């Protein structure tokens, strides 16, 4: 049994034993389970996926004369302005007025991170205290007071894989789905994914420090669409379950771990790189961290039907192999979440922990043990 | 209009997500179990459906006068 404080002391002394989640099996093979469980202090996990539930809160600083901004456009992409006078929230999926989905909020966010100039055009509602009517200027990340990335939802604990029973090709946020069950797409880094390694959130809660887009951020709250009652196989749900809301300083982020995405037939999204350290507090935590892809299952659902019925269930070992059985034949499987980038992030986090530059935090509050199931939108009457 | 032809993949821009692999109807583009991108030119039918499917614009039509391949 270890405590976060004990592990942090080892991290500060640069003596912590840190392994990536996908390296555990090899370690256990070499050292045996019990020895490895005692030896390892932290397991690093990561994910790099398109996450539409992303955006950034910005504070531009006041103009002279002051303007109470009512409408904001950043490089021609609208940002929500129903906040204080010079605050705005730029959502990742918001398309440009002129370019449509070829450029959107995710591009604005990444242009800011890259230090590029961004054109701010804003209209105000004149008041006695804010007499100005409009603003037109160029901003850089260093010119504005705050830029805070906020994911209302990220780090999904499992996600249904997709297929298509219909006779026409579907272009979806789950990628291209060829007709007649010709392929499956899936979106997870499998055994590297944080909420597979700590499935009951024994160590992750509000206030957990994480790697977010290249900076250090925090778990702010449970993510939206958080639910705990999904069907499980072993310790792990077989369909979407828990999620995390994440927050971090956009100004400190790195374009290697935050990338705009244009998903054909769907629109703009943002690839967000997240890494979460899982402290190995006891043997049970290590047992959970030893999960392998053949123990993690997901539902394969049909995107041709509006209610996305389950048509199969497969393990991530099967999906990761490139071919998997579906409707009596072997079909192609494609990931949409980058394993390579997730490995890179888990490796960067591993190095930071080994070098003493990333300290663990104890959650200030655990994440909730409900609801069992998320709600759907009420049907419209009439 | 959709153009056909061999492709060039700029690996420096690629995030190894797999959207291209899902779009490819002839299995010329695949992600290996280790997460690397594999392009088998012999399987490629030059449909170039992977070009608009790439979410980070890392795949482009190759110059017809040059050999297509994985780029850097």
Structure description:
The complex is a heterodimer of chains A (382) and B (72). Chain A has 382 residues and is α+β, with helices and mostly antiparallel strands. Helix content of chain A is 17%, strand content 37%. In chain A, the strands form eight sheets. In chain A, strands 1, 2, 3, 6, 11, 17, 18, 21, 22 and 23 form a ten-stranded mixed beta sheet that branches. A four-stranded antiparallel beta sheet of chain A has the order 5-4-9-10. A three-stranded mixed beta sheet of chain A has the order 12-24-25. The longest helix of chain A has 16 residues, at 339-354. Chain A is globular, with a radius of gyration of 22 Å. Chain B is of the alpha+beta class and 72 residues long. Chain B has helices at 19-23, 50-53; strands spanning 7-9, 29-31, 37-39, 59-61. Chain B has a two-stranded antiparallel sheet with strand order 1-4. Chain B has a two-stranded antiparallel sheet with strand order 2-3. In chain B, strand 2 (29-31) and strand 3 form a beta hairpin. Chain B is globular and about 30 Å long. In chain B, 39% of the residues are buried. The model of chain B has no long low-confidence stretch (mean pLDDT 90). The chains are: A alpha+beta (382), B alpha+beta (72). At the A-B interface, strand 2, strand 14, strand 22, strand 27 and helix 8 of A face helix 1 of B.
Quick rundown:
The complex is a heterodimer of chains A (382) and B (72). Chain A is α+β, with helices and mostly antiparallel strands.
The total strand number of chain B stands at: 4
Unreliably modeled segments of chain A: none
Number of structurally distinct domains of chain A: 2
Tally of alpha and pi helices of chain A? 8
| Proportion of strand residues of chain B | 15-25%
Number of β-strand runs of chain A:
28
Order of helices and strands of chain B: EHEEHE
- The share of residues in extended strands of chain A comes to 35-45%
Summarize the biggest pleated sheet of chain B: 2 strands, antiparallel
């Amino acid at each position: 049994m270890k405590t976060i404080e004990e592990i942090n002391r080892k991290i500060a002394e640069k003596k912590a034993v840190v392994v990536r989640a996908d390296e555990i099996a090899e370690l256990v093979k070499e050292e045996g389970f019990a020895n490895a469980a005692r030896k390892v202090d932290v397991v690093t996990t990561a994910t790099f996926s398109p996450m539409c539930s992303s955006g950034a809160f910005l504070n531009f600083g006041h103009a002279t004369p002051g303007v109470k901004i009512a409408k904001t456009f950043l490089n021609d992409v609208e940002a929500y302005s129903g906040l204080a006078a010079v605050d705005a929230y730029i959502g990742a999926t918001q398309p440009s007025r002129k370019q449509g989905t070829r450029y959107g909020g995710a591009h604005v966010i990444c242009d800011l991170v890259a230090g590029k100039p961004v054109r701010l055009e804003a209209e105000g509602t004149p008041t006695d205290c804010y007499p100005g009517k409009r603003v037109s200027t160029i901003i850089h990340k260093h010119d504005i007071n705050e830029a805070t990335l906020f994911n209302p939802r990220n780090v999904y604990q499992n996600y249904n894989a997709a297929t298509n029973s219909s006779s026409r090709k579907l272009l979806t946020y789950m990628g291209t789905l060829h007709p007649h069950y010709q392929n499956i797409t899936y979106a997870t880094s499998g055994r590297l994914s944080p909420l597979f390694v700590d499935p009951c959130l024994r160590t992750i809660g509000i206030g957990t420090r994480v790697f977010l887009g290249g900076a250090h951020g925090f778990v702010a709250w449970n993510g939206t669409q958080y639910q705990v009652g999904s069907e499980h196989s072993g310790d792990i749900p077989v369909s979407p379950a828990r999620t995390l809301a994440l927050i971090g300083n956009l100004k400190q982020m790195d374009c290697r771990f935050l990338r705009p995405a244009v998903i054909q037939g769907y629109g703009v999204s943002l690839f967000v790189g997240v890494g979460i350290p899982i402290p190995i507090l006891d043997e049970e935590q290590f047992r959970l961290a030893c999960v392998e892809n053949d123990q993690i299952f997901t539902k394969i659902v049909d995107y041709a039907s509006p209610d996305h019925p389950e048509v199969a269930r497969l393990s991530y070992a099967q999906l990761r192999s490139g071919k998997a059985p579906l409707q009596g034949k072997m079909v192609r499987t494609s990931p949409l979440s980058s394993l390579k980038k997730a490995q890179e992030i888990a490796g960067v986090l591993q190095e930071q922990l080994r070098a003493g530059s990333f300290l663990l935090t104890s959650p200030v509050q655990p994440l909730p043990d409900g609801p069992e199931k998320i709600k759907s939108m009420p049907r419209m009457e009439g | 209009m959709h153009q056909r032809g061999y492709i060039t993949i700029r690996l420096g821009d690629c995030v190894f997500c797999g959207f291209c692999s899902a779009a490819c109807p002839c299995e010329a583009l695949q992600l290996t179990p280790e997460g690397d991108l594999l392009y088998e030119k012999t399987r490629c039918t030059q449909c170039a459906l992977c070009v608009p499917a790439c979410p980070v614009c890392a795949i482009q039509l190759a110059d017809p006068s040059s050999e297509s391949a994985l780029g850097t």
